[in-house]
Write a structure and sequence with these properties.
The structure is a single chain. The protein is of the alpha/beta class and 332 residues long. The chain has 13 helices and ten strands. Helix 1 links the parallel strand 1 and strand 2. The longest helix has 23 residues. It is globular, with a radius of gyration of 20 Å.
């Protein structure tokens, strides 16, 4: 039977969470329209065994990919190779979906032909055991929107909220960078720049689990993996495919240059422990971008931290002043 939705679940050492994730999608009314692709990314725990148990119970809806560890992007790339659903989305193994909203989206997808579906995201705080709905503004719901006319609001640009037409991803030969973290920005940027139509649903589909110390967005993980943002910044600053995209493409592209650079520079310059090697590498990266893409350089150099002070510009052009400000803990 033809599948309407393929869901990629990247999984690395997720034995404590994978069951909750998969169970939330096993909605009987739409199960025959669903393809769940569990990608075991070289786990060292019982993740693969749990996945295989689901495969035995639901052979027509579960696909298992078992591969060596290659980080997030490699999981998405492998899932795309086998995906047969009309639409494709990602759900992290430690997150889950609201089952009723999930059913509504699949039912809507059966009768709606668009490049992108947007659904809302709920933050579920592990430490305080509380659900916190994200705030969304300027989104038009329940109608097909032309992305050459509709100005996409920034709050829409989140991996957890987007489901793409699978053929769109294949037509643009979409591939995420492998071997690094934080490639969710690529998943939003490049397909969204090329999409033509969008349908937004006013439902909190995605349940995002936050507060675990070993998450990639935990401070310790960000500090440890800051170097993973180098290839992302270079790709965003050098890729020109957005020029052939929709009328939102320039805004989306520039937004993700800023997002990636903010993570690297604001964390490494202001909040993380000093690291001379890293700071030198940062300067070389900026100099290289300045030479190859002055417009991207200007976006990065003018990123504003708190109080709208262009801290990166101070750091790049006035390293001694930057050091004095940092030592004085004047986190601008």
């Amino acid at each position: 039977m033809e599948k309407i939705l393929s869901v990629c679940i990247p999984s690395y050492n997720m034995e404590g969470f994978l069951g909750r994730c998969v169970d939330s999608m096993l909605v009987s009314e739409v199960l025959d329209k669903l393809e769940i692709i569990i990608v075991n990314d070289g786990s060292k725990d019982e993740t693969l065994s749990i996945a295989n148990n689901y495969k035995q119970k639901y052979p027509n809806s579960i696909i298992i990919i078992d591969k060596p560890n290659g980080h997030y992007g490699s999981c998405v790339n492998e899932a795309l190779k086998v995906a047969t659903g009309k639409y494709f989305r990602i759900v992290d193994a430690d997150d889950w979906v609201d089952s009723e909203s999930f059913k509504k989206m699949i039912v809507t997808a059966l009768v709606t032909d668009v490049d992108v579906f947007f659904t809302k995201c709920m933050d579920c705080d592990f430490k305080i055991n509380q659900q916190i709905p994200r705030k969304y503004t300027d989104i038009i719901y329940d109608t097909i929107l032309d992305l050459n006319e509709y100005r996409v609001p920034e709050c829409l640009l989140s991996m957890h909220s987007l489901t793409y037409r699978t053929q769109l991803l294949k037509d643009i030969n979409y591939k995420q960078t492998e071997g690094i973290c934080y490639t969710d920005t690529e998943y939003v940027c490049f397909p969204m720049c090329q999409a033509r139509t969008l349908y937004a649903m006013n439902i909190f589909l995605y349940q995002y689990y936050i507060g675990r110390d070993d998450q990639s967005m935990a401070f310790n993980s960000i500090e440890r993996n800051l170097n993973h943002t180098y290839p992302l910044i270079k790709r965003f600053s050098e890729d020109k495919s957005y020029l052939k995209g929709n009328k939102n493409s320039k805004f989306i592209h520039d937004h993700f240059i800023e997002v990636s650079a903010t993570q690297l520079y604001i964390y490494s310059i202001i909040f993380c422990r000093r690291n001379k090697e890293r700071e030198t590498k940062n300067r070389y990266l900026l100099s290289d971008i300045k030479e190859k893409n002055k417009e991207a350089f200007d976006i990065i150099i003018n990123i504003k931290a708190k109080n709208f002070i262009p801290y990166i510009k101070i750091w790049y052009y006035h390293p001694i002043l930057s050091y004095v400000l940092r030592c004085g803990k004047l986190f601008l």
